[in-house]
Amino acid sequence: MEPPAASQRSARPQSVLFMCGQNVVRSVMASALARHLFGKSIYVGSAGVIAGDPDPFVTAVMDEIGLDVKKHRPQSVEDLEEYEGLNFDLAISLSPDAHHRALELTRTNALKVEYWPTPDPTGEGGNREQRLEAYRNVRDELERRIRARFRQP
């Protein structure tokens, strides 16, 4: 018999919130990928510790795989709480600051938290192609993790 923690972790949530520092790179990619892969079978949201400014490299690498994120407007966790509420089963934090914030949310919300440490490609130097490659690597890793985590048992 499986221990309760393992069976709870493997259960597919009905709603998931992807969180990162500014809701402009990692959480945007993750939420777009999850929506694309699982449609309306999982409600997906995204937020940042703070709201940043849209990143054109994210738009470029998501366009490469046919996903349009141009309409995304960065929002903070507070913005999300104020306008939509935090009715999520699971928060997936993608950065240390987002993980800290997600754990704080568990004090007042019935929310499970998973931490998926994900590199921040914004610090990548080099030419445009080298920078895009860093974003592609993050995108592709997030897709692998999302497929593995949310596939039907």
From TrEMBL:
Broad EC category: oxidoreductase
Keywords: Arsenical resistance, Oxidoreductase
Domain Phosphotyrosine protein phosphatase I positions: 14-152
E.C. no: 1.20.4.4
UniProt keyword annotation of RNA-binding present: no
A GO molecular-function annotation: arsenate reductase (thioredoxin) activity
Coiled coil: none
Protein name: Arsenate reductase ArsC
Source species of the chain: Xanthobacter aminoxidans
Taxonomy of the source species: Bacteria, Pseudomonadati, Pseudomonadota, Alphaproteobacteria, Hyphomicrobiales
